[in-house]
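Batch 3, record 17
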Amino acid sequence: MQLSLKMYHMRLLKLFIIVLLLASCKKEGTQWQTQWLLPLVNDTLSLANYYNDSTLIQNAGQIEVNLTRQVLDLGLADLIKIPDTTISQSFQSNFTVNNVTPGFEFVNATKTHNLDLSDIQLKKVRIQNGQILLKIKNPLNTAVLFKIELPGVSLNNQPFVYTYTLAPGTIQQPTINTETISLAGYEIDLSGAQSLEYNKLQSKLTLQTDPNGPTVSLFNNQIFEFEALFKEIHLDYAKGYFGSQAMIANKQFTLPFMDKIVGGSLALPPMQMSIEISNGFKMALRAQIEQLTNTNAQGVSYSLSAPSIGPSMYLAPAIGTWNTLQPSTMLLTFDGNNSNLQNYVENLGAQQDIHYQIQPNPWGNTSAGNDEAFAHSRLKVKVNAQIPLALNADGLTLQDTFDLNITQDLNKSHVNAAKLIIDATNAFPLASDLVLYFLKNGQVWHTVIADAQLASAALGQIDPTDGLLKKKSTVQISLPQSVFIDLNDLDQVVVSAAFSTTDPNSGLAIDQAIQAGAFLALQMKLQLQTQIKP
Amino acid sequence: MYRIFFIFLFVGNVLLGQQSIDLQLMGHYNSTGIVRQIPDAFFYGGTIDSAAIDKSYESLKQRNNFGLLMGGYVIWKSPWKLPLAKDKLLAEYQWTFSIGAQQYTGLHFSKDAFGLLFKGGLPYLGDTLQLNPLLLESTSFSKVGIGLSNPSTASSILLNFVQVQNHFAARLNQATWFQDDQTAQISLDLDGTSNLGSPSLGFGLALDIDYRFGTDTEEEDEQEFQLLVQNLGAAYIPSHQSYALNGTMQLSAMPISWWQNKKLDELGQQILDSLGFEKKVQSSWILMPASILLAKRINEEPIKKIQAYYGAQMLLRQSYTPFVYAGAHIKAKQFWQTGVGLAYGGFGGLRAQAYSILKFNNKQLILRSDNITLHNGASLLIQFRCEF
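Prediction for the assembled complex:
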């Protein structure tokens, strides 16, 4: 008993000293590790959503790409543009006229104006929408009745007439009135007084003193004026000579996802593509596809070559009138016999460049000024392609970069390590190898490779419930502690997936058709190892 | 508060008599199942390894306790008596003053809650975890008291002005966690509240009563008992944050398009909305962690070499179970008496306790531990008493 009590006192003393010492020491943080599993993604990627928008069709249990896209659609407003134009007409007496009585008409003059439309010679147009801004000035010390007529401008056969009584003004401060009038539906005859000219617009100005006003004097420094601004004029009918100015265009567009392909190759089955050009204008047309080139993510460019690439093609004018208009058409066909279309597509070019020309009236004014365009006249170019959705991918690498903006304080609770677990059911004949690259200032700091391949359906068996060839696989991507130590400095992550249509027997990439109803079911979970520091 | 103390120190009629000072420091922490390495890591820092977590987890029952009680006080029994005639009832009573501070933390928790906190959710895929009952109470306060003591019986009563430095209370009435082992979907059902008091803003009153009875000085072996009530009172906290959760949440895997359009902070808010999270500021009264001890006192001038001691204590806190102890007191030397015994309850289970009393003239030093062995914690009490 004595010994144990002595030991007990020693322990008490020791504990007391330890408590005192620890109370004055800065203690190390409390910490322990926990393991968590978080559900992330549960999704099925399939092509079913594209079946009904004419992109994909099912044919004999296989999928075909039925690509119909309108790549050009021009109307009258694109072909003939009337710039904002101001016409004006003024009157100034050569001498002083005294005793001008009330109601005296002292101006009645007509003026012809030329519209500047380059080589386009219009005889008649109809305005779909647009407006005229009128501005009149009166320097006379009595009211003046302004009457402005535009003889060639009419609505339902009624000529455009504008009358307005402008209050008295002075030479220094003439009275001014402005007004905006819609021209929608107005027809304009631009053939001049003899109906043999073009781009001519007439105006007639009549001025009369106020019948109820005083007798005044008209001085030679008084200027009576009107201005008419034709603004934002859009036509829905035009007749004349539409010129022969060629539209030379160089269009570039990027195909989505194609710019993410950074390696590997893709072989496609024979395919066919057609381009249909339709001319709804009553004028001859020349079309020329000068060059069609694509450039892939590696910078390799490839040009489409075919008999119809390069030379000019001529389309006859459309026939008929408003209700009976029949466009003239031309069909260009590209296939393995007359082009390198397959190689062109297999270059996987994301950047597409097309150089083309469209020229109206390539032989000049052969219609004697009788070109016509209606509201529904269109110049259209439509591309149609039907490609069996079968492919031969050999390490075809799709790569995308995402910004990484995740920070954590290692002195507080934080993630030590993580594992991305992907459970997949694949009905596509593609196997995939996944790699993650973690970047800092554009430099790869960590490379994380999946522990297994996302297996191709070719390795699986037919599921009797839906008749599809499927393969289940589990892929784990372990993110080591070093990634999380550097996490605050890492600014980007690159996700790279290399696809292959590998033959399960030979191990070589072979042509594989996509099954109708093919899908990729993904279930992604994130396993976290966390360091808890309360 | 300290000014008030010193004002009282110099007020009143001074009649010279015997005075004493008691200084006590104590600290206890204990658990019904958690091994000592875990609370030690919280007090002194360090890594809690998986072996300690597994060992604790295996020894836990479905309902468990952990608690911490620490503090200290000084009681000065002054020589000043009440200005009353000698035949009056309280004529012999002395003014008594005290100052002290205390920290109480008690946690009542389920085995599953411990497992989820210290191991994470991964080991429990496919299991339904019952996280309730979960009750956490923590109060720290200081007090200044004034009262009277009877020098002949050592009984005393003090009224304390209390200032609450911190108060935190959280309760989960209902909480289940289930994570599907195939899809990893998490289903959480929660119903709970918590209150977090703003520091240094609570104040109140509390009584300390030390009542000795059963004493008969004519007979040396007569047993003396002590009823000690401390911190019996309440405090008002004018402003504290109150949080409430009552709802269910399903955290499941989502389509890729959902992740493309979602921000993580929106996800956090969505989870709180699903759980019916509410936050408000309110005032409230809290009961102080009052302690009630009924014990047989040691006869410090015994005829026999060995005598028994025993007692029971309870705290007005749900996370504290009644504490009972009993043992043998030994008079080893004239200046040294000691005792060993067993204790059960409080925050822990059965464990051994021991103490020593060293006496030198009019000074007395007591060292005591309620956790010598069989323990899941630590305990130390140091008491110094001086009469002059």
